């Protein structure tokens, strides 16, 4: 089983990229539907200090769509070299003694690492960060904040009466964490700096944040756009991947067919 896990997870990398693209496209469509039908998305976040800031202005909605769509081209989302790094981190922490472990938790960390790499240009590396680290805490606070947001969405107008210090602290933590990257990108734009890799070569990979600061210098809007896409790119993808492995574990005929197709790659990355 372990022998086939490595190429299988590499092949699943393509699925990860596709799911992110599909989810974001759906997010854009539902936003336009909500805006055109007068849905009150502000019930989720009644202030600019809340977790996500939905901007319902028609002009800004058009600007967002024009900015986001090019970011999810086939070339941009199939950067398998970057994803391979996170796949290997996942494989390295999977127990090799056949003991039971929670794969879903690891998949949520995998998609968080990959999404932040794509959006911010730097991964939080939650798979390899020690317990109690800022990177680990970011994932925990992010989960709690969005859990509370679901309740606020259900409450609608009454959401203004729903809140807690823990929720507020979680939002502040997430904001502060992302704001560091936003500030760094805005400063780099001002100084006309470019990103370089460890070897001193100019980075060629697509970074969403770099493109975002070219369209607007509003740090609140930049942060909100990043969190909106992170929400779409992380949770849904991790959930579907969890279900995928749940099904594969119970359908040996599908597993065998998939294993045969993976073997044809000869250990190479899919293209």
**Number of H/I helices:** 10
Q: Runs with pLDDT <50, length 5+?
A: 32-57
- Under CATH, the homologous superfamily of the largest domain reads Cytochrome P450
CATH class of the largest domain: Mainly Alpha
CATH topology of the largest domain: Cytochrome p450
Span between termini? 24 Å
* Global structural class: mainly alpha
* Assigned CATH architecture of the largest domain: Orthogonal Bundle
> Main sheet?
none
Strand content: under 5%
The SSE string, one letter per element, is HHHHHHHHHH
Q: Kindly state the percentage of residues in helix.
A: 55-70%
Number of strands: 0
Please tell me what the overall shape is.
Answer: globular
Oligomer: single chain
How many domains in all?
A: 2
Mean pLDDT: 76
CA-based gyration radius: 20 Å
Task: Report a brief summary of the structure.
The protein is mainly α. The protein has two domains: 1-39; 45-264, Orthogonal Bundle (Cytochrome p450).
Tags for this entry?
single chain; 271 residues; Cytochrome p450; 10 helices; 66% helix; Cyt_P450_sf; membrane
Describe, in plain words, how this protein is organized in 3D:
This protein has 271 residues and is an all-alpha fold. The protein folds into two domains: 1-39; 45-264, Cytochrome p450 (Orthogonal Bundle), CATH 1.10.630. It is 66% helix and 0% strand. The chain has ten helices and no strands. The chain has helices spanning 2-36, 58-68, 74-77, 80-93, 103-120, 134-155, 165-190, 208-215, 219-248, 252-263. Helix 1 (2-36) packs across helix 10 (252-263), helix 4 runs antiparallel to helix 5 and helix 7 (165-190) crosses helix 8 (208-215). The two termini are 24 Å apart. Mean pLDDT is 76; it is low at 32-57.
